[in-house]
Amino acid sequence: MSGQEWWKRAVIYQIYPRSFQDADGDGIGDLAGIAQRLDYLSWLGVDAIWISPFYTSPMKDFGYDIQDYRDVDPIFGTLADFDALAARARALGLKLILDFVPNHTSDRHPWFLESRQSPASAKRDWYIWRDPAADGGPPTNWLAEFGGSAWEYDEASGQYYYHAFLKEQPDLNWRNPEVRAAMYDAMRFWLERGVDGFRVDVMWHLIKDDQFRDNPPNPARPPNAGPANALIPLYTADRPEVHDIVREMRAVVDAYPERVLIGEIWLPTDRLVTYYGHDLRGAHLPFNFQLIGAAWDAGVIKEIVGDYEKALPRGGWPNWVMGNHDKGRIASRLGPRQARLAMLLLLTLRGTPTLYYGDEIAMRDVPIPPDRVCDPYEKNVPGLGLGRDPQRTPMQWEDAPQAGFTRASRSWLPIAADASTVNVAAQRAAPASMLTLVHRLIALRKAEAALTIGDYGALDAPERVVMFLRRVPGRRLLIALNLGESAQSLSLPGDSRQATTLLSTDPERPLGDLAPAFTLGGGEGIVVLLADRETAPPSPAA
Ligand code: GLC
Ligand code: MG
């Protein structure tokens, strides 16, 4: 039976370590701070935490530029702090997933310093060095995600090196077997320390074209997309050879029992699912971001879910992500009422959900004054709304100075203006809060096998309503979400006579018996237990 592996039943919670809890009073979150807050996560009911990078780093991209894969940056603490955090997590039954960033290192990494020294360096080929084009310019037209050419000229050697992100994040050359071996060793370092898996950063970027062909122009450049979208990344990402690497990474992870390999992959569904790999020997969970950028429209959502379910390879386990440190927050995208529906959807669809810290209390994007901007994306490409600081602000714990995040007088990013009311302490005590809803949803997911390992079946529904079934033998749950603002009349599927409302996003709705014809309020979502005709208990009259 499927569903034995822990990560199939798990709810994953993403922590951005700079912003979760500051223990040492420097205004920046740290590992000791996370350890202090694990009891909260245990109460919330999540099963696993994924922590964004905390390795030694010059912090040009806030930890996604790694200088030492085997140590903790002093800002975040020490390896001893990590071990203490891991031990505490283990004691609480929480799995621990690390962020692994294999595509690029920091330009301060000893490997790159050595590589840069001269074209004759033993590590030259660990990175991607090329001679200039005939006109002396960059070797190809490839663009960096954070703006400008992806090639940086090195005066000393007269060559360019490639960087898909910042120039301080040179790409490793994954065609070099020594690079592969060194990176797999770095993974083993953490596996030996007991981590339960990795979220692999930009997995689909790892290999670039060996013929260095120019990328074609993008005729359908989406509005408000980053500057790199001017080209189609045909030769810089999602190359066929990437799957060999993913397979090797999987083998590294599989040498240890019960570990999970997750890939960050921004691709359309048909390409995304190829990352499960031939014979499912690739990523266990290629992150599915299809709902993050999607219009909040019932037809669109139904199509996304249906296409994804259809595209999954046999035995491939689904997953859903609705928010992360790179995208605007759900509550800002959708508004307070629909954000509750988003949580219902995330936690009732078939597949492992990943919840971004703060979304469980409906934190919103925080406006960042110009003098407080930290994100290099915003600094390089200002004013387009691409900056990621707004969704990375400190967790709002309580109505206290700095929302209880730090004892410092100032946090690295501003605290939300509404933190005195939108915070964990206030919402834990409030039956109608987002936190209470998310807590209940997670508990329901745990109690109902249909919600974790059950089948998914779409149901026809009026415009603006998403309706589906989750089902294990003998138990069927109906989930209905009204994305519209006005109430909708609905009826239970034809073969069910009796139904019980288990949960509603509307705190006013009474739980319990639900009539076969019922009304769903504007912006309301419900989870209903259906008593099937064949399994319904005999009625007293019979
Ligand atoms: C991933 C990370 C993002 C980072 C980039 C470069 O997309 O999620 O935060 O800036 O990779 O490492
Ligand atoms: Mg700190």
From TrEMBL:
This is Alpha amylase, catalytic region. Its EC number is 3.2.1.20. It holds the Pfam family Alpha-amylase. One of its GO terms (molecular function) is alpha-amylase activity. Residues 14-392 form the Glycosyl hydrolase family 13 catalytic domain. The lineage of its organism: Bacteria, Pseudomonadati, Pseudomonadota, Alphaproteobacteria, Rhodospirillales. It is an enzyme of class 3 (hydrolase). Belongs to the glycosyl hydrolase 13 family. One of its GO terms (biological process) is oligosaccharide catabolic process. Keywords: Glycosidase, Hydrolase. The keyword Zinc-finger does not apply.
